[in-house]
Design a protein that fits this description.
alpha+beta; 13 helices
Amino acid sequence: MISFFTNVELTQIMQIVLQCRLMACPDPCGVHGELQFYPPRAWGLDFHFSSYKKMYIRDIQDLKPYPHFTGAFAYKNHPVYKVDIIGTIVKRVEQAKCFVYAVDDGTGVILCCIWKQPFDNYKTHIQRGSLPGPLQEKLAALEAQESSQEHGYQFGDLVHAKGKLKIFREKMEVVAIYHSRIEDPNIHVFRIHELPRVYSQCYDKPFQLPQKVRQALSLGSTTAGDQSEYSVAQDLKAILNAVVSSTDQCLYTLDDLWVFTKVKDFLTVHCQVAEHADHARKVLLVRALSLMEGEGHVVARGDRRNMYEFLMGTSKLEQTVKKTLVTETAKTKYSEKGCHYLHILDELHATLPYSKLKKEALMYCLNQLEAQSDVIRTTHAHYLPCS
């Protein structure tokens, strides 16, 4: 396919496309009050966070630092820290250690810093004659490309660059990690047609976390003041660990846990609203138990409502797991290699007390039994009883 567009015509097309998009989305980079911004530990849940974002240069210039964290920039509530651009060089400055180019894609101009990286240090170690013919041709092409890049790109070249964003002297700049000259202008035409689809399908949709993650990162204040519900539940979890570990009992109801002085005092302090105090205490206690269940330290029993089994000490689950292993490994199918932990989990789910058992609790119990030499692990997932 032969392209009949000049650089001027491509620039005009890009400006028209951007104007049409801005009419549909008048403030693409604005910080809206209804958008939720998340801490850095949750950014990886944004599907495109780790990729180089293909964006209009105008939008890149309008990016603002991500609220409460200056290591990235925000497009709507999407964190952005590296981009992929295609544009024409309209200015060239050569310095001792780098080239600084002004790249124009038709919507704006951005500075692009490309560091000089001479390859003379290891070229002498390559013996071209010992390489196969196709590799010699590939090496020659790479050396020719590097030789041309040593002299930099020229004014009017169409280039493709990927790199990280930074602000240098109050101006947005791309520090290129990858860069190359584009010989085929059709690649630029393809990018012009690609960007509106990428924006509508990805960038213009708000970044939302899954419900469970939102609950874990909930910042809504409770009756404890500025302390979040998640933080309060974590503190209560530590208290429950301490008081239960000091006893020989492993089965507790919510009313049993309320009897402990430390638990009662903690819940009283953090649930002081008179008309909702009892409900708030129960919710907070269930939330702490849910966190412990997710870590595998607690099992919600299925044979009695609001009954929990703690696994930190000697538990009934350990005895049940050992009996299940003895029964199943007596079968020829499992006698040599042992039982897979998922098979053990299925067998326990068939019983009423452990119908709600989670994998984390089973693995915690199996690790405890292995440490006590009650079971032996034959593979990374199979177990045999020791007696």
